[in-house]
Amino acid sequence: MNARAARPQRTHRSGPRPPSLASNLWTLAALLVLLALSAGSALLRLGPFNAVANLGIAAVKASLVLGIFMRLKSDNALLRIVASAGFAWLAVMIALALADVLTRTPLPVPW
User: Fold this and answer.
1) 5-14 pLDDT, tens per residue?
2) CB distance 64 to 25 below 8 Å
3) CB 3.0-4.6 Å disulfide test: which of 33, 44, 46, 88 passes with 50?
4) What is the pLDDT of residues 84-98, one digit of tens each?
5) Contacts for 42 with CB less than 8 Å, ≥ 6 apart
6) Ranges of H-type helices in the chain
7) How far is residue 63's CA from residue 60's CA, in Å, rounded to a whole number?
8) Within 10 Å of residue 56's Cβ, how many Cβ atoms?
9) Are 61 and 36 within 8 A, CB to CB?
10) How far apart are CA 40 and CA 50, in angstroms?
11) CA–CA separation, 78 vs 81, rounded Å?
């Protein structure tokens, strides 16, 4: 009897396989490049496009984290639905906070 046959077989499903070391290292390198891009874009004078560029970079970083580290790409559909519901709730909270801030009228300064 060899050593492989002596090990007990897993009988339950414990989710998808974790990402490989190479995949994690490529993701780390991509996140570090995106970090350098977002730090470098702070030094550029792009006007209103600076915020757009930084939000785009943040969206790419978030999608990398969601897809690779949270395994949303390879796990079951229920996890993707729950993550989508969480982001929808976050969008509602941001929209309500923006509605509050943008509809305020400045108070007159008392003399």
Assistant:
1) 566 565 556 6
2) no
3) 46
4) 899 899 999 999 999
5) 50, 54
6) 3-6, 21-41, 49-64, 77-102
7) 5
8) 15
9) no
10) 11
11) 5
